Amino acid sequence: MTTSEWVFLGIVAMLGHAMALFWYVAKKHDWRICERTIYDLPVKDRQLKRELLNSIHTPTHAVILGIFLGLGYFGNTSWLSFILTLLTTTIWAEIWHYFSHRAMHLNSLHWIHAEHHKSHLNTPLTAISFSFSEKLIFDIGMLLPFAAADYFLNVNFFGIATWFVGYLVINSFSHANFEFRSAGYNRHVGKILATTTYHSLHHSRYTGNYGLGTRVLDRIFGTEWDDYERLYHRVNAERRPLTRLREQVEASEEV
């Protein structure tokens, strides 16, 4: 493997914990990005300890990606292959995450996902707190199709690695318990892209809002919470955080 490939693997392996540290420092020093709290509730120390323990196997995706690379996969280095691989990875990730996520909420499969859902309130560590089974299933489901496609299309390693970098940053923001986007976000691009508030509802209410980075599949399959935009307005425009996990924003509180 080349030096650039090793560097990218290192970044992909450590970025999840680096983002957790970022949010810890931001909250401790009251940075402006933490001004708009979503759920104004205390977090118990045992949750943080459990999440930190779960984060030990967070770099699993870097290990699997490195194994494929070492076996000779993902060798295309052209700019076109980079762009096509990054685009395809982004689309596949949204599809794979949505349907595997919904499947893990079935009674027969929920044991895989239950550890992540012990965190009803998100913390800087929640984004990297998964059972080993869930982490392994998600990562294999992400990478195995590209390894199969590599026999025909010659996939680009840097396209996949760049997606993981973006995913680790966005996933960290999605679990932050602070909303940083503009008050009018859901009037334009927010009709498609999800927010921190969006995913916070999934944790606090345990179902719904299954999407990774977009609202698209939730809206197609009817799994989006219908008070999401009203709740977003309350948190972001009115600066009024929620004080109960299952608290809802009634239709009378229209934006």
Protein architecture, described:
- By secondary structure, the protein is mostly helical.
- It has a domain at 3-179.
- Helix content is 55%, strand content 0%.
- The chain contains 10 helices and no strands.
- Helix 3 (60-70) packs parallel to helix 6.
- The longest helix is centred in the N-terminal third of the chain and has 26 residues, at 3-28.
- The protein is globular and about 55 Å long.
- It starts with a helix and ends in a 19-residue tail after the last helix.
Kindly name the structural category: mainly alpha
| Rg value | 19 Å
Q: Give the termini separation.
A: 53 Å
- Helical segment count: 10
Task: Characterize the biggest β-sheet.
Answer: none
- Beta-strand residue percentage: under 5%
Overall mean pLDDT score?
92
Helix content: 40-55%
Shape category: globular
Number of strand segments: 0
SSE run: HHHHHHHHHH
The parts where pLDDT drops under 50 for at least 5 residues are: none
Explain the layout of strands and helices.
Blueprint: H1 3-28, H2 45-54, H3 60-70, H4 79-103, H5 110-113, H6 132-153, H7 157-174, H8 196-205, H9 216-220, H10 228-236
Relevant terms:
255 residues; mainly alpha
Kindly summarize this structure in a few lines:
The protein has 10 helices and no strands. The chain is mostly helical and 255 residues long. The chain has a domain at 3-179.
